Amino acid sequence: MAETKLNFLGFLSNLLEGKLVKGIISLRALDVNSGKVAYSLVVSKDNITELVPDFPAMPANGGKVVSRFTLNSSPLVPVAVVLRPCEIRALIELVKLNQAHLENILIIGMECGGVYPYQSLITKQDIDNLLSEYRESLKKGENPAGIRPVCAGCTDFRPGLADVIVSQIGRDQPVLFFPTEKGKEVAQTLGLTLAEEMIYTPVSDALLKKRQEEKENMVKKIKEEINGLEGLVKIFDNCIACHCCSHVCPICYCKDCFFESATFDYRPTDYYAVLQDKGTLKLPMDTLLFHLGRMTHMATSCVACGMCEDVCPVNIPVARIFKTVGSELQQLFDYLPGRDLEETLPLTTYKPEEFQEVET
Q1: What is the model's pLDDT at position 32?
Q2: How far apart are the C-alpha atoms of 160 and 163, rounded to whole Å?
Q3: CA-angle at 118, arms to 39 and 211, nearest 5°
Q4: What HEC string does the chain produce?
Q5: Residues pairing with 175 in the sheet
Q6: What is the phi-psi region of residue 306: left when phi exceeds 0, alpha when psi lies from -120 to 50, beta otherwise?
Q7: 334: phi > 0 → left, psi -120 to 50 → alpha, else beta; which?
Q8: Angle at 253 between CA 247 and CA 256, to 5 degrees
Q9: Cα within 13 Å of Cα(100), Cβ side
Q10: CA dihedral (279, 282, 284, 287) positive or negative
Q11: What are the 10-residue block averages of pLDDT along the chain, 360 residues in total?
């Protein structure tokens, strides 16, 4: 693999200055004194210093951002996008669903140490100290304290299908690698001095083992909480039917959601029928049905980005539940969302013989 120790922001600036790309989509600081960042499209190298691509925040899933940018067609000029692994995998899933295009897109993938819950980040007083602690943890191969729970148990924190890989765990400074032909062409055009070494450090390997343990503990705890129908009802009992989890989910892309359709505009007689049957009525209705329905639609494509849990106003561990269910489903289908652009979606793939062990 080819690599270079060129300063990352300098690399992005050279991409624009060398006219290899006409724009860069990356996190940009909105306020240097706070944790407020947003995905932005930068077209001038004079604005490169505003970019904070490694900032440990996810105000939106970047895969969904790029999907919106390329929904109708690919950009007419080359554009670089800086994304975390789960965002890249979400983008790949959206391409399969005809919700994004990758032509003229240069994917730059960050080796990810996890992100903080956004609400806790923007209310933090000492951002500089937090970032220092975060980077120190990554140097040691440890999970930074306070990151999203699903991040702490994420074993897919290394970017796949990226043209440029930013390796940073266990390193004093990020190192850039160029695993694809498109990436190698970029490095060659910029005249970078390349060397050969392993992309990921032994420290990164150690973190992978710790993440696996965290994942197993998380899955075990969620399964204990959702032990049968009673546990399932209890864990979703606080749901207020805001549907925020589906609105931020990169995989929930439907413009006309069934759960927000007129089907659920009940008449008084409908409520009365339920009361006659059950004797009591919880409002809003169908909150559990909503989560089960959403899970059925997108669990095999869930990339466990954690956006759903981050925005839940009543603190339901939505992401951990979906990761637990999704991981098991994905294992059954031998399918990792976003692993391969040519790998077909399980829900759209028919096999004459499948799951014979569950037949009667």
Answers
A1: 63
A2: 9
A3: 100
A4: CEEECCCHHHHHHHHHHCCCCCEEEEEEECCCCCCCEEEEEECCHHHHHHECCCCCCCCCCHHHHHHHHHCCCCCCCCEEEEECHHHHHHHHHHHHCCCCCCCCEEEEEECCCCCCCHHHHHCCCCHHHHHHHHHHHHHHCCCCCCCCHHHHCCCCCCCCCCCEEEECCCCCCCEEEECCHHHHHHHHHCCCCCEECCCCCHHHHHHHHHHHHHHHHHHHHHHHHCCCHHHHHHHCCCCCCCCHHHHHCCCCCCCCCHHHCHHHCCCHHHHHHHHHHHCCCCCCCCHHHHHHHHHHHHHHHCCCCCHHHHHCCCCCCHHHHHHHHHHHHHHHCCCCCCCCCCCCCHHHCCCCCCCHHHCC
A5: 167
A6: left
A7: left
A8: 85
A9: 25
A10: negative
A11: 66 94 96 84 93 94 96 94 98 96 97 93 84 94 95 96 95 92 93 80 97 96 89 90 94 83 78 78 81 90 96 95 93 92 87 68
Task: Give the pLDDT of residue 281.
Answer: 74
Strands across the sheet containing 37-42: 37-42, 23-29, 79-83, 105-110, 164-167, 175-178, 2-4, 195-196
- Show the tokens assigned to 352: 């004459």
Rg of the Cα atoms in the chain: 22
Question: What is the distance between the alpha carbons of residues 200 and 125, in angstroms, rounded to a whole number?
Answer: 33
279: left (phi over 0), alpha (psi -120 to 50) or beta: left
Residue bearing tokens 């169908």: 286
The tokens describing 296, both together, are 């059925």
Residue type, 305: C
